[in-house]
C-alpha cells in the first residue's frame, strides 16, 4: 500500500499546456493477483490476443483503462518484459529471432540477455489507464509519449533543478524493455527510443506528435 | 518517456520556469543562414 497522492488533473493540464501533447498521458501498474486488476473501476478486458504495445496504445490513443494477464498476450516476448512470462532458457536462447532480427542465434541470445525485464513470478496482471482517470492510484510508472522536440523539453524541465545527466538505453527490437521492463527498479526516467516495428508503438515519433 | 510519478511535479516546475525564460515548445524554426545572435543573445545572455 502506498501513501503517494498526486493531483493528476493539474499534472496533465500542465503537461498539455507546456508540451501540447497529442497522446494521452497514461499510467501502468502491475498486480500480484488478477482479482486486484479486475477490481479497477470500468476496467476493459481484451477479447482477443494482443501485444503489450497495443494495450498501451489503447490507453494513450483511445483513453481506455485496460487490464491484461499473460493469457491476453500474443507471445512470450511481450509477457516477459513485464514479468508475466518467464525469462527461461528457451526465451533466452533467442531461437525465435535468429536469422530474422539477428544473423546468428548467438546474437539473438545476446539480445534476449540484454533486455531489462521485470523478474518473473511476483506479478500476474497489468493495467494501463489515463492518469486523469485516477484509477491506478498511483501507477508504478507514467508513460508520456511525444515528438523528439516535446521530449527534450520534458527532459529540460526535469533537469531545471537538481540537475543530473540522463542516460538512455536501447536493446533495439523489443525496445519496451528499455522503459517498461526497467520499471520495477526505476530510480530515474527511462526514455523509450523509437521502437523497431514490433507493435503499435513503432511509429512513436510521428503518431504522438 | 517512462517515469515514476514522483518526478512529474518537478518536471512541471521546470517547464514553467523555462517558459518564463522564453524557452517554449514548439521552438520556432531557425534557418541555417539566419542571424543566430537574435535568439541566442536572449537564451544565453547574462542575467540582467
Walk me through the structure.
The complex is a heterodimer of chains A (209) and B (48). Chain A is 31% helix and 9% strand. By secondary structure, chain A is an alpha+beta fold. Chain A has one domain (8-207). The longest helix of chain A has 12 residues, at 8-19. Chain B is mostly helical and 48 residues long. Strand 4 (141-143) of chain A pairs antiparallel with strand 1 of chain B, so a sheet runs across the interface.
Tags for this model:
heterodimer, A: 209 residues, alpha+beta, four-stranded antiparallel β-sheet, globular, disordered C terminus, B: 48 residues, mainly alpha, 2 helices, 42% helix
Number of helices of chain A: 8
Approximately how much helix is present in the residues of chain A?
A: 25-40%
Specify the structural class of chain A.
alpha+beta
Q: What is the total tally of β strands of chain A? A: 4
- What percentage of amino acids of chain B are in beta strands? under 5%
Estimated structural class of chain B: mainly alpha
Give the neighbour order of strands across the main sheet of chain A.
Answer: 2-3-1-4
Nearest-integer average pLDDT of chain B: 88
Element order of chain A: H for helix, E for strand: HEHHEHHHEEHH
| Integer-rounded radius of gyration of chain A | 17 Å
| Shape annotation of chain A | globular
Q: Which range best describes the helical content of chain B: under 10%, 10-25%, 25-40%, 40-55%, 55-70% or over 70%?
A: 40-55%
> Regions of chain A with pLDDT < 50 over 5+ consecutive residues?
193-209
Instruction: Categorize the overall geometry of chain B.
Output: elongated
- The span between the termini of chain A is 36 Å
Beta fraction of chain A: 5-15%
| N-end to C-end Cα span of chain B | 35 Å
Amino acid at each position: 500500500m502506498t501513501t503517494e497522492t498526486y493531483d493528476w488533473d493539474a499534472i496533465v493540464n500542465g503537461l498539455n499546456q507546456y508540451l501540447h501533447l497529442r497522446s494521452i498521458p497514461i499510467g501502468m501498474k502491475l498486480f500480484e493477483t488478477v482479482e486486484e486488476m479486475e477490481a479497477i473501476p470500468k476496467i476493459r478486458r481484451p477479447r482477443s490476443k494482443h501485444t503489450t504495445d497495443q494495450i498501451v496504445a489503447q490507453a494513450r490513443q483511445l483513453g481506455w483503462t485496460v487490464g491484461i494477464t499473460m493469457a491476453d498476450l500474443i507471445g512470450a516476448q511481450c509477457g516477459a518484459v513485464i514479468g508475466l512470462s518467464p525469462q527461461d532458457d528457451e526465451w533466452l536462447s533467442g531461437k525465435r529471432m535468429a536469422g530474422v532480427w539477428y544473423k546468428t542465434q548467438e546474437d539473438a541470445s545476446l539480445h534476449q540477455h540484454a533486455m531489462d525485464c521485470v523478474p518473473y513470478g511476483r506479478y500476474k496482471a497489468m493495467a494501463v489507464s489515463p492518469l486523469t482517470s485516477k484509477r491506478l492510484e498511483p501507477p508504478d510508472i507514467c508513460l508520456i509519449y511525444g515528438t523528439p522536440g516535446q521530449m527534450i523539453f520534458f527532459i529540460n524541465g526535469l533537469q531545471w533543478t537538481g540537475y543530473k545527466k540522463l542516460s538512455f538505453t536501447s536493446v533495439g527490437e523489443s525496445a519496451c524493455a528499455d522503459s517498461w521492463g526497467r520499471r520495477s527498479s526505476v530510480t530515474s526516467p527511462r526514455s523509450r527510443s523509437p521502437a523497431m516495428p514490433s507493435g503499435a508503438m513503432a511509429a512513436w515519433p510521428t503518431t504522438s506528435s | 518517456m517512462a517515469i515514476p510519478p514522483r518526478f512529474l511535479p518537478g518536471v512541471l516546475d521546470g517547464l514553467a520556469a523555462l517558459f518564463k525564460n522564453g524557452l517554449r515548445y514548439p521552438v520556432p524554426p531557425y534557418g541555417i543562414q539566419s542571424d543566430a545572435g537574435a535568439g541566442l543573445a536572449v537564451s544565453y545572455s547574462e542575467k540582467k
